[in-house]
């Protein structure tokens, strides 16, 4: 079966590599069908590449080749990936992608285009890289009401936080090291400000609860305000700070979804997720907590998930996989600050007696070199709005949510 | 769509409960089809049960009801479950099961019967209870050569080992507590001798590598020889003892598969799996290590996996899911003692100098109250046969494999 790859960057070239190096298992798993690379779309020139005769700069070469049945979109970004994908799907070609930005923004439209073309749009690689999560979420948990999801969805920030926690490295130094190791881009904004995690939250929430959640609906806070002082206080409470994407079911008509640093207590499966690894914890009412762990990014892990989707498409030509993913609504994602109760970590310039006055009961934390006018504590459960009201007028240095996962 | 349940024990009654309590999500996920319980097969009487009008003691009532399209087999054991399942499948009814003993012994035959009947035989619940592993293994890793699998596959033994590790409880006391809590049966042999884990290893190996592996081919050792002394020595090396099922790819024609206690170093995702939880780690050549974690047993987790398989069958009537699972061979599973190199933990009545004489280099361990004539150490990598040769004539107290997962 002929296939095409659009975008020959890290993931796209990985897709070509995996298809070639795994031709035997691919044949076995499609039931005898080989994946044959017919075209590679990229605007750049790769004169030295062994596939140079496959390259094209003209999308029409793929769209108009009737033999091409499956296309891997590994371009990234919304444009022109969106336009290309819609046209391919409507023409009846299956498309698989690792492009989380596109799925988060346009997943519903693209699934509708796939329906029109009686073909499949699959995106296992868009969340958690090589970690299987889309299929388990849509198939294996089918007999559960999902109560919540919490995930370490971004490897770059988890690497930075791991260095801060384990090696007492400052945020700035850890970021530089991540860049040096190729884990963070020159402009690290999408990672450290939580935008990348936000996109993955949108995809998970849309699949888990069936209504499209858009990035603009997800309150998103990155890790740039986390200091070694916070890390140290939290450590004294037997916890670690992780960047979590969290989704909570409220009722049939509403969920909460947010990305933020969070205190995770040791003993949680999420606490032991170190370095660039990702993990996604799903809480179902029948199954309890299930956790998926692995490399959330990287050339071959992500490419292997893209190729697995291609294999699935090869097995399901003209048979559509149905995701229950319908229109979202403006008020579907509620303001978590108002609705969700949780404990909070607070670091402030306050006296202990003042803290006790404001909060009936807290757990005080300590750290080496703690200044006499600084306190850190963990509150009882309350909404963030209630917390902010209690703290109004106080000199607050940092606030971090405490998770119950 | 009408369905039947065979066996109204813990899992079977859980299946009925999940179907009834989750009718809304089930409808959503099948695309509008409800699962309607038509018959429940059990030899016992349940006069007080609200479903008493559904009960039958006659298998023919299910087999001969043309409206019944899907049957959950939650009877356990090989007979008569095997006979019933074959007849249902050949009659074109889909069967889903949590019966690991049956799948491990007869999986291939039953998949062939399903092929004959042009229907599906699904068994997600047979490994890891509610943890999704069968689908990820067969679909999401399709573009990987699987190099190995290691799993904590039995909750009872993991509970016992956790109590030994964390509370210094003896094996006997921990077993009694497990029985009191309902985690272990009166006759705990299948759990503590590793037979239950062995069955799951067979299913995982058969799916991962495509050839049926039978329980008799898997060298199986339980946890009854593990003492608090071993736990303590291993703890001094920053490790824990877990009962692991391990599968290793050797080449196209051979694998190794064995169940035994194993030293897992802290830092591994498997080390932090406590209590009755299970975890399965899959190592793929493209994706790296991926780990799945959750409740491996229990009424509702297991039942929710059975019902998820029923939903999948409801979506795939007359469309078969293909597992690449073919005939096994007698010499396909090699003797790991001869082929697989690994480090070993050894506890013995030997002097340190004698140990140094026999092994070029080892890491000595220590424990509180260590007798002066006892040593414990971790060897370099070697085969078990090589180890046994080196230790021949020595007074060995215990030997435990050290895993590289």
Question: Could you describe the 3D structure shown?
Answer:
Chain A is α/β, with parallel strands linked by helices. Chain A has 15 helices and 16 strands. Chain A has helices spanning 10-21, 23-30, 60-63, 81-90, 100-116, 134-140, 155-167, 171-180, 189-192, 195-209, 228-236, 299-315, 336-339, 352-358, 384-391; strands at 2-6, 36-41, 55-56, 68-73, 94-97, 121-122, 146-152, 219-220, 239-251, 254-265, 277-284, 288-295, 344-349, 362-365, 375-379, 395-402. The first copy, chain A, is elongated, with a radius of gyration of 23 Å. Chain A starts with a strand and ends with a strand. Strand 12 of chain A pairs antiparallel with strand 12 (288-295) of chain B.
Strand content of chain A: 15-25%
Any idea what the radius of gyration of chain A is?
A: 23 Å
What is the typical, i.e. mean, pLDDT of chain A?
A: 95
Assembly annotation:
homodimer
Shape of chain A: elongated
Q: Which regions of chain A have little confidence, pLDDT < 50, spanning 5+ residues?
A: none
Percentage of residues in helical conformation of chain A? 25-40%
List keywords for this structure.
homodimer; 405 residues; alpha/beta; ten-stranded mixed sheet
Summarize the structure.
Chain A is an alpha/beta fold and 405 residues long. Chain A is 36% helix and 24% strand.
Chart the SSEs and their pairings.
Two copies of one chain form a homodimer.
Chain A: E1 2-6, H1 10-21, H2 23-30, E2 36-41, E3 55-56, H3 60-63, E4 68-73, H4 81-90, E5 94-97, H5 100-116, E6 121-122, H6 134-140, E7 146-152, H7 155-167, H8 171-180, H9 189-192, H10 195-209, E8 219-220, H11 228-236, E9 239-251, E10 254-265, E11 277-284, E12 288-295, H12 299-315, H13 336-339, E13 344-349, H14 352-358, E14 362-365, E15 375-379, H15 384-391, E16 395-402
Parallel strand pairs in A: 1-2, 1-4, 2-3, 4-5, 5-6, 8-10, 10-16
Antiparallel strand pairs in A: 7-9, 7-11, 9-10, 11-12, 13-15, 13-16, 14-15
Helix pairs in contact in A: 1-12, 4-5, 5-10, 7-8
């Amino acid at each position: 079966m002929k296939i095409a790859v659009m975008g020959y960057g890290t993931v796209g070239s990985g897709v070509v590599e995996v298809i070639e190096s795994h031709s035997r298992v691919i044949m076995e798993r499609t039931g005898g069908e080989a994946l044959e690379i017919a075209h590679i779309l990229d605007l750049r020139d790769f004169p030295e590449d062994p596939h140079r005769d496959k390259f094209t700069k003209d999308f029409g070469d793929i769209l108009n080749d009737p033999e091409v049945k499956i296309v891997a979109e590994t371009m990234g970004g919304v444009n022109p990936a969106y336009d290309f994908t819609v046209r391919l799907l409507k023409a009846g070609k299956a498309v698989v992608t690792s492009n989380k930005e596109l799925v988060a923004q346009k997943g519903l439209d693209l699934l509708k285009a796939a329906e029109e073309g009686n073909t499949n749009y699959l995106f296992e690689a868009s969340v958690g890289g090589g970690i299987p999560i889309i299929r388990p979420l849509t198939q294996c948990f089918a007999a559960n009401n999902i109560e919540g999801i919490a995930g370490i969805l971004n490897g770059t920030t988890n690497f930075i936080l791991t260095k801060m926690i384990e090696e007492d490295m400052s945020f700035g130094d850890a970021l530089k090291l991540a860049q040096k190791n190729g884990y963070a881009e020159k402009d690290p904004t999408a990672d450290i400000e939580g935008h990348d995690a936000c996109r993955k939250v949108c995809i998970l929430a849309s699949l888990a609860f069936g209504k499209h959640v858009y990035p603009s609906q997800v309150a998103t806070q990155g890790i740039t305000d986390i200091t070694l002082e916070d890390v140290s206080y939290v450590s004294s409470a037997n916890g670690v700070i992780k960047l979590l994407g969290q989704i909570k079911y409220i009722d049939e008509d509403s969920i909460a979804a947010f990305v933020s640093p969070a205190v995770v207590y040791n003993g949680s499966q999420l606490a032991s997720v170190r370095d660039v690894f990702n993990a996604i914890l799903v809480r179902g009412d029948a199954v309890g907590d299930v956790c998926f762990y692995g490399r959330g990014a990287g050339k071959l892990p992500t490419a292997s998930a893209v190729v697995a989707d291609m294999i699935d498409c090869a097995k399901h030509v003209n048979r559509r996989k149905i995701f229950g993913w319908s229109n979202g609504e403006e008020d579907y994602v509620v303001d978590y600050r108002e609705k969700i109760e949780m404990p909070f970590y607070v670091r402030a310039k306050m006296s202990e007696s003042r803290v006790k006055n404001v909060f009936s009961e807290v757990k005080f934390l300590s750290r080496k070199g703690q200044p006499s006018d600084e306190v850190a504590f963990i509150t009882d459960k309350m909404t963030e709005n209630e917390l902010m009201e209690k703290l109004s007028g106080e000199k607050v240095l940092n606030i971090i949510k405490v998770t119950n996962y």
